[in-house]
Amino acid sequence: MIRVVLDANQFVSALLKPSSHSAEILSLVKKGKIKLLVSDAIISEIKGVLLYPRIMKRHGRNRDYIEIFMEKLKKIAAFTEGEVHCDAVRDDPSDNKYLECALEGNADFIISGDHHLKDLQSFKGVTILDPATFLKQIKK
């Protein structure tokens, strides 16, 4: 099964645009077609971003909805232990958590729109793609 790590903005995109590529990827996760990998650090960032006041205003969901969303996410994702550390993204060290999770969880892909990650293209065997390119590649 394909194993993926999604950056926090993919979850925001999925909530804001249910017809987005990010939402389609989450749908594949829910259907068990691909495996989502997360770490505690990633879960914390996703929740924090979804609870930003300006983001909440855009997606129109309340705190309770976000809490339920996060609980469901935790149930369908595979957690990594957070034992792998790297310092590959020097311009934005907070992005290293995605690389660490991917390495520890033997991910095939990191899916991100963040240029700090996308500029790497791959990292120690993990391919880094934007959502649209990822979907095109797995449909081949």
Number of domains: 1
Enter the CATH topology name: Rossmann fold
CATH secondary-structure class? Alpha Beta
Q: Strands of the biggest beta sheet: in what spatial order?
A: 3-2-1-4-6-5
Which oligomeric form is depicted? Answer: single chain
Report the count of strand segments.
6
Strand content: 15-25%
Number of helices: 8
- Which architecture does the CATH hierarchy give at level 2? 3-Layer(aba) Sandwich
* SSE succession: EHHEHHHEHEHEEH
By CATH, the superfamily comes out as 5'-nuclease
Tell me, what's the shape?
A: globular
Structural class designation: alpha/beta
Would you tell me the overall average pLDDT? 94
Distance between the termini: 15 Å
Largest sheet: 6 strands, mixed
- The share of residues in helices is 40-55%
| Unreliable stretches | none
Radius of gyration: 14 Å
State the gist of this model:
Helices cover 52% and strands 15% of the residues. With 140 residues, the protein is an alpha/beta fold.
Protein architecture, described:
The structure is a single chain. The protein has 140 residues and is α/β, with parallel strands linked by helices. The chain has one domain: Rossmann fold (3-Layer(aba) Sandwich), CATH 3.40.50. It is 52% helix and 15% strand. It is built from 8 helices and 6 strands. It has helices spanning 8-16, 21-30, 40-50, 53-59, 63-76, 96-104, 115-118, 131-139; strands at 2-6, 34-38, 78-79, 109-111, 122-123, 126-129. A 6-stranded mixed beta sheet has the order 3-2-1-4-6-5, sandwiched between helices. Strand 5 (122-123) and strand 6 (126-129) form a beta hairpin. Helix 1 packs across helix 2, helix 1 (8-16) packs parallel to helix 3 and helix 3 (40-50) packs antiparallel against helix 5 (63-76). The longest helix is centred in the middle third of the chain and has 14 residues, at 63-76. It is globular, with a radius of gyration of 14 Å. The mean pLDDT is 94.
